[in-house]
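User: quick one, fold this
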Amino acid sequence: MSQKIDQDHARFKQIVKGRIKSDLRKYISRGDMIGKQGKDKVSIPVHSIDMPRFRYNLKDSGGVGQGEGEVGDSLGGDPQKGDGQGQAGDQPGQHSLEVEFSLEDLAKIIGEELELPNIKPRGTRTIKAPKDKYNAIRHTGPESLRHFKRTYREALKRQITMGTYDKNCPVIVPIKEDKRFRSWKESVIPQTNAVIIYIMDVSGSMGEEQKLMVRIESFWIDTWLRYQYDGIESRYIIHDTKAREVDQDTFYRTKESGGTMISSAYAVAADIVEKEYPVDEWNIYIFQFSDGDNWSREDTNRCFSILTERLLPKINLFGYGQVKSPYGSGQFIHDLEEAYGTKEENLILSNIPDRDAIMDSIRDFLGKGK
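Assistant:
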């Protein structure tokens, strides 16, 4: 019975997975899924899946019953009255089923549907991570780590050697010298590590819809990169005319105000990279989101200087995503295209006019396996 249930559950998950893949653009563009994120899982509302249920026999074959009444009588209550509120209708209601998926499963779905290649770590960027493995035996240790089989064997050997073992009454009583305990050896293994630095413009031209688009895309980028790397860190920078590093919650909740000087954010990002992430040990990703406004051409030139000298030579990928805003000029992406064109392979530009474009933007950023 349990095997049958496991088979049915596996088949149901495959059906749900197929439904998610077919509607992936819709799921990616929705922000409510992020709010239902747990530690390692996400609740996904899936519509129009018929759940198993009992059906009454439609044949007019009679049956067995007791009590008063005629065929067709209601089993209880007035069929013309209901408990709900609102007007009656002649259309079926829309119901949704929430299904939990692990972030790893979601990353696999994204990779398959967007045809994302697995990331190839740049150069020799690996760090040595210690790992403890219980593969040794010692004569001392805590009782919680006592190796019962080894202890029993030592006690048996001792009693046989001393002639105190009675095969007719095989009682084995370990003493202190017989006890053996599990122990560990520390090994050092190579582990590819990565850091993602998110930069967001929070100036007055960035509204709530633009920030929600940034949040959605950042979530899916983060999901894919965490699937690709064993260890990953995330850092967050916000800026108007000044930039500062903040925590994740502040990054998403800061209200917009002030003007825009993008170079201030680039300088903070460059300082973080240079001080904390050696280029021979870390894979470094930077994703910037803005509506394309900048204070002056002079500041734009300052941005190019920091990019060229301090960031692009040291990082795997710099992704610039420009969200459309009714108040932003959208000029900065054109300035980047004019300055760099296709000369820098690790600089990727992406226009994000609305939520439906988020899926294409993710493919832009991650489609080359940088």
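User: anything notable?
Assistant: Strands lie at 41-47, 96-102, 127-138, 181-191, 193-201, 231-239, 243-246, 283-290, 317-323, 347-352.
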